[in-house]
From TrEMBL:
Pfam families: FGGY_C, FGGY_N
Domain Carbohydrate kinase FGGY N-terminal residues, every copy: 15-240
Domain Carbohydrate kinase FGGY C-terminal positions: 276-475
Family as reported in the entry's similarity comment: Belongs to the FGGY kinase family.
Protein name in UniProt: Carbohydrate kinase, FGGY-domain
Amino acid sequence: MTTDAATAITAGRTALGIELGSTRIKAVLIGPDHAPLAVGSHDWENQLVDRLWTYSLDTVWSGLQRSVAALAEDVRRRHGVELAGVGALGVSAMMHGYLAFDADGGLLTPFRTWRNTNTGRAVERLSAELGQNIPHRWSVAHLYQAVLDGEEHVGRIDHLTTLAGYVHWQLTGRKVLGIGDASGMFPIAAGTAGYDTAMLARFDQLAAEAGAELELAALLPAVAVAGEPAGTLTEAGARLLDPTGWLQPGVPLCPPEGDAGTGMVATNSVAPRTGNVSAGTSIFAMVVLERELSRAHRELDLVTTPAGDPVAMVHCNNGASELDAWAGLFGQFARALGAEADSATVFRTLFTAALDGAGDGGGMLAYNYLSGEPITKLEEGRPLFLRSPDSPLDLGSFMRTHLYSSLATLRIGMDVLQKAEGVRLDRMFAHGGLFKTEGVAQRFLAAAIDTPVSVGDVAAEGGAWGIAVLAAFAAGRSPEQGLADYLDGTVFTDASLQTAEPDPADVAGFDAFMQRYLAGLPVERAAVEHVAVGAPTTPESQEQPA
């Protein structure tokens, strides 16, 4: 197998997928059978600057170069050959957000990520005027908020894009975006592969009323669907990824996509009545629709698959980060006792303990809100844990409470989709770090949405593998083959899944927890109101008690 892999690598019968996630930049090389051949990654983290979440563009390129270099080293270590080129390439990144450039290609304002929720006024007005829910993180919401705030840079915008679109532009010179990511910049017209022209015209009117003369259609990237060519790697683009020189120009690229779209591909969830839940820094569900929804819902985003099929998305800004923080604390305690436990062991121990916790969390309550959460109408977040005086403080119930908390906001949106709209699912796939400990978060998610939940090895490498598959699809598919058929008939023929059915006791327990969670939301709002960000933490700066 190693010999076959080495032959495929040296012959360039490979596809390289790169995804810039919230906490990691990852590169995956796949062979002709779509199996991963090598992996490289680089950890990074967003920064809160002037109360806005951002990443610097310098860290984008340094992180990409380190990920690609790590991939080349992994090829050398695993297969004993040098990586001399790739057959196809694709770029994915965290969805939406706001990257605005002037005519000279200069960045006009720091990258505003999906995590920012400062766009409340824009969201309310646009949702009402366009007749569709416009989420806080969408690019058009950021733009209109900048218009409403009278930001100076608005009049100098030449081009708007997402992070995936930006990287693709620098690699190829083409300002294009996959339809899945594009549908989070501005609404896509039903049954088309383009932005809604009537809504574009209305936006221009709204901008003019606010004092900004804009033609939004001219600012947005072109839209492409899965399988379409989207340019080739230029010499300058090759050196941006690989300053050492092994990566050569001319590699074909597929349309760049957001991590929601690549997650759908990585879980074979692009056909109607299929869905997936991705849990990382954020947590979101993507459900492919077989009919239009009856009306707009604030909790649901209408986006598309990479092939352009309609999707209802439940996006929650806050996912597993607070769980990571608690696991880190327990890891520090273990080390203070002299026990050397790596993070994987700590997580596995804590998650497994949750299985023995009280079904409803034992009267405990937690909010995992490190940032704002639009579904619960919070523009900022404060991580919070509390319990009633008669709640026993045991490890199992404590951990179950925090796992439930990571799924609670998702449950709110899924209730709208499943109960108010009557949407049915044939299968729901779960992936992401939250589900690495077998049989824990998967079981709790099945209880939260009262639906069977599958996990498996098909999404082990996540969205970076998904965009590599999209690159291979664009480079080698037959003209009449659709994405769903390609995934079913070529990529996932031997996939192995483990499915958890919802346990009635867990369903009842999660329902009881949700009643307490919803009732306690005013406490979280009070924490946002009364607990300032950046309060003094040093002993010298803290006021001493009387």
